[in-house]
Amino acid sequence: AARELIQAYQEISGPSDSEKIWYRLERAHILCQRSAVGHFLIHVIMFVFAAHRREFREVVGQVPRILLAIPSSLFNFAPRGNNGRTKMGLFSKGVIPTDLIQFFRE
User: Fold this and answer.
1) What number of helices (H) and strands (E) belong to the chain?
2) Which of 31, 43, 58, 95 could form a disulfide with 1 if both were Cys (CB 3.0 to 4.6 A apart)?
3) How far apart are CA 87 and CA 57, in angstroms?
4) DSSP string computed for 47-60
5) Do residues 28 and 43 make contact, with C-beta atoms less than 8 angstroms apart?
6) From the CB of residue 15, how many other CB atoms can be counted at a distance below 10 Å?
7) Does an H or E element contain 25, and which?
């Protein structure tokens, strides 16, 4: 999860396809939800990337997500499979991609 998070962050600074970067950020978010620090950081990165791209709706939508990231992870109420984007409801569950399921087996 950390590797994907770092890779997503590094891609923000260079010219790239924004959909590809959002795809990676969404996947990193799904993986980081269990970690309070990781969950917080992925939302900060999403906020920075959205601001860099001037995606106002996404910037505004990331603010409550940043504020709730740590408590939602600590108290285990982050909805599994949620991709962390504004277009997905704050408390909506999502489908975990099949290649990421292995990280959720207990």
Assistant:
1) 4, 0
2) 31
3) 9
4) HHHHHHTT-HHHHH
5) no
6) 6
7) helix 18-32
